[in-house]
């Protein structure tokens, strides 16, 4: 099976490269960062064009793991965030329509599309009320995938990732904790600590990718990507710090960070019907992440 991974040098994209290479797929990569690897396409940062890979190859699967994944950035530069998370998705869809219409597209969306849900766990047809430009842009990208399936017959699906973590991640909660723990005896975080998230380890996310490729009808399909376990930020922070500096104290400022939801918990019923079984609880996943940090930082 021939697969193209766009954003192949990023956190999720690089894991996709390793995972599908190990499974024996013929893996092609595309990214804005340089690489001397074979089967690699350099994408321009400005006025990006995704046509070349699809003109020169016929892929079975395309995974789009590119784009911005930073809520704060979307407030600072909503135009750029829109370009990365909406315009580029539309360009990929056009390239597939024009040159490789049988290719199945998996696009990474985000649980940010939900905002603050009224009911937990969150099912895929829950109302979407994003709290940030990033969340709105991810929702728009999903609508594009639905549009190109409905009107052009493309095979598409969106993955609403909740809180993914693991080796190579250099942003968000645990990376922030790691940086701050190296600087002082106290670690300061936004919020009260009672906010909750649904964390999923990167290897479990790869299992989900595999199951989606095998079982999804690719009809503009949408899937939650989480672990169906709700954890407070305070508990998650302490589990992580116990791997490094158990004596460090976490201080919560009480300040609300713009764009951040209060509570998240994914309903994983659809993917469980495909056979998804979580392999990593938070303690084990954070132990693996901490090992990588010690070895690579």
Sequence-ordered SSE layout with sheet pairings:
Blueprint: E1 2-6, H1 11-22, E2 26-31, E3 40-42, H2 51-56, E4 61-64, H3 71-76, H4 78-99, E5 104-110, H5 133-152, E6 155-161, E7 163-165, H6 172-181, E8 186-189, E9 196-197, E10 199-201, H7 202-215, E11 219-225, E12 231-232, H8 233-242, E13 249-252, H9 269-273, H10 282-296
Parallel strand pairs: 1-2, 1-4, 2-3, 4-5, 5-6, 6-11, 7-10, 8-13
Antiparallel strand pairs: 9-12
Helix pairs in contact: 1-7, 4-5
Per the principal axes of the C-alpha atoms, what is the gross shape? globular
Q: Round the Cα radius of gyration to an integer and report it.
A: 19 Å
* Helical fraction: 40-55%
Low-pLDDT ranges: none
Strand order of the largest sheet: 3-2-1-4-5-6-11
InterPro entries: Epimerase_deHydtase, NAD(P)-bd_dom_sf
Domain NAD-dependent epimerase/dehydratase: 3-226
Protein name: SDR family oxidoreductase
Family: Belongs to the NAD(P)-dependent epimerase/dehydratase family.
